[in-house]
Amino acid sequence: MKRKILYLLLICAFAVAACGGGGGAPAIVRIGWGQGPDTLNIGAAWLASAYTIAELTYSSMYELNLDGTITPDLMTEVSTSDDGLVYTYTIREGVKFHDGEPLTASDVAFTYNLVMSHEDFPTLHSYTEYFASVEAPDDKTVVITLTESIPNIESKLIFLYILPEHIWKAHEGEDAATFENLEMIGSGPFKMLEYKPNEFIRLGANPDYYGGAAKVDEVIFQIFSTSDVMVQALKSGQVDMITGVPNTSVETLKQDKNIKVVSGAPLAPDLADIIFNVTDPENCPVDEGGLCTGHPALRDKIVRQALAHATDKQKIIDVILLGLGDPGIALIPSGLGEWFNSSIKDYEFDVEKANQMLEEAGYLDTDGDGVRELPDGSRPLTFRMNWPSSDTTAPRMAEILAETWGQIGVTLEMQAVESDALTAQCCPTLDFDIILWGWVADPDPNTLLIIPTTDQIPTGYNETGYSNPRYDELFAAQGVELDHQKRVEMVWEMQAIIHEDAPYIIPYYAYAIQAYRTDRFTGWLDNQPKVSLEDPSSLLAGEPVK
Amino acid sequence: MSRWQRLVRKAGWALFTILFVVILNFFLFRILPGDPARQGVRDPRLTPETVEAIRVRFGLDKPVINCIQTFSPLEFGDCGVNPLEAQFFIYVANLLRGDLGMSFYYNRPVGDILGERLWNTVLLIGAGQILAIFAGALFGLGAAWKARTSIDYSALIAGLVAWSVPTFWLGIILLFWGSNNGFPIGGKETPGMSSYPFMMRMNDFLHHLFLPTVTYTIVFMGEYLLIMRSSLLDVFAEDYILTAKAKGLNTFQILKDHALKNGMLPLVTIIAINLGYTVAGVIQIESVFSWPGLGGALYEAVTRRDFPMLQGGFLLIAVSVIAANFIADLTYAYLDPRVQVE
Which residues 316-355 of A are in CB contact (within 8 Å) with B? Predict the structure, then answer.
């Protein structure tokens, strides 16, 4: 008995020493999220969550705001040469890395050169695609020379986080991609305190941050394997915010008076797509293993348009997203602001009209089995439809499509396929009829617009095998068009072409849904055009409830 | 054959099996469709040049083995390549040096990841198994001794229900109950406690361990209870139990000296098999409670086609299963002298 009391006393003594020291408990924000970063080395990273952490710990030349605009971060002035090839940047003075070393132009040049020379950086390398050389003539000047005059250098510089040369110098060779970078020294508003892979990441406010220190002391990202459990953690107060709310939990969370649910366009545009294999046999990438076994009817624009007319997008949104999404038009999501072509009138849901179109084009049901055949009667309109087995919503979408498409004499052979196997089947093999899939992309429309270009058939990104000279021409032209308004016009025309030719049906642009407890912290940026409570700007704005 | 000869022979077979697994593991994952240099990611930023550069970094540009360039898709290659330039022999050579390679996905040494995850899994399963074995054996014994009474029937029903209830469902139910009663529901520790004194961290860890352990215990206890009960009922029907009763031995002596030793045999088998396999992690429990165990790591590795992780992980499972069986063999010999005589 005496022993027990002694132990208890000891524990209490320790507890007092641990908690009672600082005077007032530290303000710790606990964020639940579904997937942690694969690595803290942003060069080697594949996942968006690695970029989320990089945004918080690093600085870059520009930052992407929650209203979609891009504003200066490290840079203060820029001048451009007349030919649009040389950019001379002046950077902010007095910026320090988390370890106290100053951040100078030579760190910037070092970082850009490191990324340029590392083709094996999975996602980061692409941002230096048009860089010819980067130099730092003095401590505050960075000169970037491009190979082509591109209009969107800012949107690339956002993601080129400035790494400290004094740390990365030792890893600039072959091991740059295998360096673990556990200290993650940067110059951003938060610094890395503790990282437990697949468990949590602990960040501390950087008191010397040039943009003003955060009002919270620590931010903890805790990883949950199951989203329903994450919701329960928020309800029971074990976390203060969750970055991904399952659509099915929205209603119950809204009833909790201490929880606020926020939904809207995601920061990284994303879209769902119904992919038709429209590959023309002469475009078949045989050298890359192309089989091009798509159903011939899908190469007919009329059939695709009829399928678009027979697609009830609103019902899909209501059933799958419980209403939390916008009907899709073309490859550019509505969340991309001015890039989104808002003038396109979508194919209205009209089964009768779809039937009439197929009838007129000669797709008749000659044998009376309820399924139409090709005009020459050789093959029924029976399409294979696949989706990645990890996608839990695709089976329901497939069901809805099968129902309305069935009413126009089309049948589907539906099967879920493991993602990697589906990739092997999809592109550039083009051994499918229809796939239900999706894309997540960058704030600049380029990454989405490149997909249906002819050049991307052999690389496997042009998943439909679509090829249109006019579209290719526009894509090349907008990529070097420095006049913003003209570029917007071209991007609009490209969307109109894709919508008209319908190699895709875009069923929806899903909303991002997040939630936070109102009884712990206040001030998160929850009223922005784009929803991202874990964005640096939002985490810098929040403060404990008094 | 002496006892030692038998032991050496068994160990020899175990080693042979492991060698077979080493070889099979390498080829099995390379036959799957999918490209580790893409990791199941579809992203226009990932250019074909980048994929090629990543392939070189991972060593996937080298032929799989002499005469075969790749398995998926199958491509034949040069038979005269230096074997030390072929992926298979590089893998074997590294393995002999104890090097499991770098995970393609996590960018960390596979040995480190497996070590961390194995330890987490062993803690969870160790606690759960011990409780399940004791509770299962005890209730099974009670049920068998009081056969065909209400005690037996309630134990039987409880055992059947526990055994057949879906693991994730039980986990979720306990999780909801626990989250409203102050138990943490995610992970194995509260983030940010690393600088706290040991006793507080231990207390925090035990709190995190509680719900997953209870789930594990209930599920496995059911199985052990049923097996223990039925095997003891068989033993009780034997003549020597009747003899023991006739000799006037008390209940405790009969159980201890005559029934339990024989009745334990099937239970030992099941425990050994379970122990071996559960090193792979109880993925349902791990995923409900976000427990950073081996099961989740291997699941992730499969979806990412992370070859080094898969090779290392499956080798670890194979070794555990084989080791558990080996130990079970030895335990048999101790529990049942008949095994030794043969």
Answer: none
Pair A164, A185: CB distance under 8 Å: yes
How many CA atoms lie less than 13 Å away from A392 in the CB half-sphere?
A: 5
Query: How does pLDDT run across A381-396, given as a tens digit for each residue?
Result: 999 999 999 888 999 9
pTM given for the model: 0.90
Task: Among B35, B38, B42, pick the best mutation site for testing chain A contact (most A Cβ within 10 A).
Answer: B42
Task: Tell me the pLDDT tens digit for each residue of A126-177.
Answer: 999 999 999 999 999 999 999 999 999 999 999 999 999 999 999 998 889 9
How many structural domains does chain A have? 3
E strand segments, B58-119: 68-70, 75-76
Q: Are residues A531 and A503 in the same domain?
A: no
Q: What is the pLDDT of residues A235-282, one digit of tens each?
A: 999 999 999 999 999 999 999 999 999 999 999 888 999 999 999 999
- Residues of A (8-67) whose Cβ lies below 8 Å from B: 10-11, 14-15, 17-18, 28, 30, 32, 38-39, 41, 44, 46
In chain B, which residues have their Cβ closer than 8 Å to the Cβ of A10? 199
Host domain of residue A485: 270-510
Pair (B180, B266) in one structural domain: yes
Is A22 in a helix, a strand, or coil?
A: coil
Residue type present at position A414: M
Total domains in the fold of chain B: 2
B121 near B295, Cβ under 8 Å? yes
According to DSSP, residue B99 is labeled -
Which of B233, B212, B230, B220 is CA-nearest to residue B271? B220
Q: What phi and psi, each to the nearest 5 degrees, are found at residue A194?
A: -155, 135
